[in-house]
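Entry 12.
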Amino acid sequence: MGKSNILFLTVDCLRYDRCGFNGYTRPTTPTLTELARSSLVFDTAVATGPYTPESVPGFHAGLHGYNSAYYSDVDWTAIPNDAETLASHFRNTGWETIATISNPQLTTERNFDTGSTAFETSAPRTSRPKSAIRRVGGIAPRAGEFCA
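Predicted 3D structure (tokens):
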């Protein structure tokens, strides 16, 4: 049997207490609830920073905001150039790593592409972003159902 696929899905500013897989009774997240039935859901995660570029390095590179967000010649950088990331760990063990980002703060200039064999960002916040899940396509069954 070949390798399984791993889909690491994060949603910025998601109200966890309004998700069906967390017991919320209104049908706010039917597709996520269905996906959660056969997934590993981390429901005790704690953000490592107060805003996205400081918080994402926590789960992406195991870094706290105080040792990851720093000012460089580019701008505020969130992940140091030599940091090992979740993507680089998987890539170094033979996995293909694809990052599809719709948050305009998570840029290559801030090293959020570190470890990804493919890195793609969507349109700026001023227009409706493309669905990250749709572009990943074959990674998750019925991936298109996540699209708005």
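Annotation: Residues 16-143 form one domain. Residues 125-148 have pLDDT under 50 and may be disordered.
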